[in-house]
Amino acid sequence: MNHSDSSDNAHTTGTTGTTGSHAVPTGNTYDKYATTNPVEQRMMRGFFGALDRFLDRSAAEPPARILEIGVGEGIVTSRMIERFPDASVTGLDLPDHDLVAEWRQRDLRCVFGDATTLPFADDTFDLVVAVEVFEHLPDTHAALGELARVCSGHLLASVPFEPIWRIGNMARGRYVRDLGNTPGHVNHWTNRGFRRLVTSRFDVVDAANPMPWTMLLARPRR
Q1: What is the pTM of this model?
Q2: 155-209, pLDDT tens digit by residue?
Q3: CATH code, domain carrying 45
Q4: Could you tell me where the beta strands, DSSP code E, fall in 148-190?
Q5: Considering its fold, how many domains does the chain have in total?
Q6: Positive or negative: CA dihedral 32, 36, 40, 43
Q7: What is the DSSP string of 41-67?
């Protein structure tokens, strides 16, 4: 789910899964985590700085149960396991058997599934993470409702800020035919638009804009 150029991935698998009748990329078309480009390296430092700050804020009491939606190859998942070694961390992504080897290599506990029909009971997780997911989902409201259902503590979610993201792609000569649109991005979020979506089911407690992303920390509204 959180795949392609703005994804939580480290390799270039480029395969697809499905949600309903829609194909969703389940591989990374560009490895931004291993980039040697100094501008991109600076961007990633900003992203992970905001992510770590939100993880710390969500952990007044360290989370015991964490779910990551759109786990990809598990870069962020592994980071959370290092940060919360006593937590039970579960990852979920669309069916893609190329990912299984990555999960095994990182010793991750992950399952195949769909964000709109999560196979977990209500209030199962203290922390739910959806990093670079909502730009890929055809039914964002159904997925957000499921995240609210299984979340008893915090949601940490991010999306690319598309106006800047697409300009950046064009400047680097990527996806020029599609005016900079990254493959698999079916939603194109502004800061305000993503906040509007999240606040339909959650109360936002913190926000950050590490360029070119929007990142929100929120609690489910009961």
Answers
A1: 0.80
A2: 999 998 866 665 565 666 666 575 555 666 778 898 999 999 999 999 999 999 9
A3: 3.40.50.150
A4: 151-160
A5: 1
A6: positive
A7: HHHHHHHHHHHHHHHHHHTSS--SEEE
